[in-house]
Amino acid sequence: MNDPTHHTARMPTLYIPHGGGPCFFMDWDPPGTWDRMAAFLRSIPASLPARPRAIALVTAHWLAPQPSLGSAAQPGLLFDYYGFPPHTYQLTYPAPGAPWLAERASALLAQAGFAPAQDGSRGYDHGTFIPLKVAFPEADVPVLQLSLLSSLDAGAHLRLGQALVPLRDEGVLIIGSGMSWHNMRGYGNPRSTPISAAFDEWLTDAVTRPAPERNALLADWERASAPWGRQSHPPRAEEHLLPLHVAAGAAGEGDGRKVFCDTVMSAVVSAFRFD
Q1: Given CA atoms 169, 51, 18, 207 in this order, what sign does their dihedral have?
Q2: pTM for the whole structure
Q3: Quick one: DSSP state of residue 31?
Q4: Residues near 11 by beta carbon (within 8 Å), at least 6 away in sequence
Q5: Average pLDDT of the residues in 103-114
Q6: How many beta carbons lie within 10 A of that of residue 36, not counting itself?
């Protein structure tokens, strides 16, 4: 069952928004703020060609000097959000880990010239368990949580994704979990709407181009999307964008398209899929 070389229908890769803290599991003002995003997340399983054997999720909330992979058989949860209602610190998500997939992904990353590290103690952070609790509420699909690189180098994250391409033919759903807009000072400010819309238009154009053009634009996103990119992801705070680069790299030559868009707290936020 856990043979990582078993082949099945090729999985897409996804870049999804994970919301704000535990937003899907609490009251919000105004009500309904996150409803459309939650509906999109719930729609993911039915959109796949088959049930995934495992999920490899790259989270915006884990940065490390080298690619780091959670290898615990039964990870706990990291409640790495602050100031939310007490009940949101009692949430559960008992999805099993995927030590076999950590080994397989580590080997692929090493072959690509990375120096991966496995972490057997880290639990799922909220970039992982919050969206997966919405999308896969039964918590019965094994999950491998992967870090970003603390260098925040866009090209390196594309290469990281490219190293993981073979997993898609092994029943593994690769997900980048972040937010396509993540200027914390801009949420709720109406002036953010046209800025985020302009960046979203650029991002959508980049994602939907042929893979060589797409990768070149994403590698040079700060310059290519100026001035909107840095107004959407301030300097040294692009960790919520870079999971997209991993998903795009793991797409190989596959086509990219926007599969969700909404305006949340005055900011345009999107999700993308690569097939």
Answers
A1: positive
A2: 0.96
A3: T
A4: 48, 49, 50, 52, 167, 168, 169, 171, 172, 173, 174
A5: 98
A6: 15
